[in-house]
Design goal:
- About 70% of the residues lie in helices and about 0% in strands.
- By secondary structure, it is mainly alpha-helical.
- Helix 4 packs antiparallel against helix 6 (about 150-180).
């Protein structure tokens, strides 16, 4: 458990620190949008690119937020509890998060497969077929806007972010189990 927590926490910590700069990327895109609309011809790509940057910032930063404990929590009673009781409650409630993330990953993989031109009902085997060469990429899904970007890159980022969140939720469960036993495990940061 300790090794798993250290690896997952380290990966999500580094990705989260990089994603913090994503806010500046989005601001740059929106700044360019304002400048191009004022002084030049408006750019077609800026609105959707800002949305894609925001989705990436939010989804890929989620595991970092969970790790840092900065997620929103209703703590009417929680803040008065001792650490052991908090760990029991968190260990119980993380199962609901795991189910939710499993559903998101299942739907995200299906949607990503659809964006790559797969219309069947077995998206996981489709991706395995892509890896082994048994399947091919079909007609790629595009947005219906004037810019018409491909949908698979942002859908892939979402699935990766959901998967990293799932790994982080399991890491948090392991930390709660250790706290219940009277131990502390985690990553030391410099």
């Amino acid at each position: 458990m300790t090794g798993y927590v250290r690896v997952v926490d380290a990966v999500n910590y580094r990705i989260g620190r990089v994603m913090m700069w994503g806010l500046f990327v989005m601001m740059g895109i929106l700044l360019w949008s304002s400048i191009s609309k004022t002084f030049f011809l408006p750019s077609l790509w800026t609105l959707e690119m800002a949305q894609f940057a925001m989705v990436t910032y939010y989804i890929m930063g989620g595991p970092y937020s969970l790790q840092m404990g900065s997620n929103v929590r209703m703590d009417l009673f929680y803040h008065n509890w001792n650490n052991r009781k908090k760990a029991w409650f968190d260990a119980f409630t993380v199962f609901f998060l795991l189910i939710y993330l499993g559903v998101l990953i299942w739907g995200g993989v299906g949607s990503t497969a659809y964006s790559l031109g797969y219309w069947g009902d077995a998206p996981f085997s489709y991706f395995w077929g892509l890896i082994t060469g048994a399947e091919e990429v079909g007609r790629l899904e595009r947005s219906s806007t004037a810019w018409r970007p491909y949908a698979w890159p942002i859908k892939s980022i979402m699935v990766i972010g959901f998967f990293l969140m799932l790994l982080q939720a399991i890491s948090e469960l392991f930390k709660d189990i250790a706290r219940i036993r009277g131990n502390e495990i985690g990553v030391t940061r410099t």
